Amino acid sequence: MQESLHKPVMEEEVLRFIHPRDGMVVVDATLGLGGHAAALAARLQPSGRLIMIDKDEESIAAAKERLQKSRPRCDFVHDDFRRIDRILDRLGIEGADAFLFDLGISSFQLDNPVRGFSIRAEGPLDMRMDRSGFISAYDLLNNLTEEEIASILWKFGEERFSRRIARSIVRVRQDGPITSTKELVDAVLRALPYRSHFQRIHPATRTFQALRIAVNRELDSLDEALKKAALYLNKGGRICVISFHSLEDRIVKENFRELVRTERFRLVFKKIMRPTPEEIGRNPRSRSARMRVIERIK
């Protein structure tokens, strides 16, 4: 069941560019259900070490079951990857040979209505990756001003109708708090021109993306984590990042550009790499993925 829930994106490319092998220390900073981790673990045995980080305790529990028979040493860490330096220090690791960041939300989270990520299934307005966190999408939508909501939708979703949607949300909550994903979708649809209801991508996609990013502080965490990962990367080691929208990719691109300027790193390939048409056919959710890889050379 877990295999069907999570198809690791660009798995072949991850294995090709990280090239995991016996004795390496590899950090999977976004464990999810462990799809990439399982493939890495199979190649790190018997004496390699795999550190797996995730903010979602449910994902970690599922990944542990999937990887219970793995032979290399496996460390499961429930934490935010922005604290990757503290995590590695705590584990006694001075340097790693590879870091993997797969920034996509997993099908396991997206398809569970209770988590509040899904546009198409009704659920509570949660959207927390770490369910012990204090701020949820409900808190943002029902407490921020119209201007603040519009700012989030524009900054994190690049939603061109951000002001209209924010105005609609504030108008709806005057009759009582917005509590469900369906209520949010309805508020978005009311704000948009009728023709936008028939686009290939659901018209509320950017709104949901923006709220998820804001709730989980995803862009700040990514920027911080990439900077710290570079400090712990061994010579000859690589950082591989799979992102799914332009905001993430911009942060990756800017961080990698700064590292190249130090003359201690090189880009493994200059342009982004996309999934093959065959993979997109097998797994349509991979269609927006883009990969960048950098290597430490000094």
TrEMBL record:
The keyword Cytoplasm belongs to this UniProt entry's keyword annotation: yes
| One MF term in the entry's GO annotations | rRNA (cytosine-N4-)-methyltransferase activity
User: Which Gene3D superfamilies does the entry link to?
Assistant: Putative methyltransferase TM0872, insert domain, Vaccinia Virus protein VP39
Q: What class of enzyme is it?
A: transferase
Pfam families registered for this protein in UniProt: Methyltransf_5 (PF01795)
Alphabetized, the UniProt keywords read: Cytoplasm, Methyltransferase, rRNA processing, S-adenosyl-L-methionine, Transferase
- Where does it reside? Cytoplasm
Q: Which NCBIfam families match?
A: 16S rRNA (cytosine(1402)-N(4))-methyltransferase RsmH
Q: What is the name listed in the Swiss-Prot or TrEMBL entry for this protein?
A: Ribosomal RNA small subunit methyltransferase H
Name the species this protein comes from.
Velamenicoccus archaeovorus
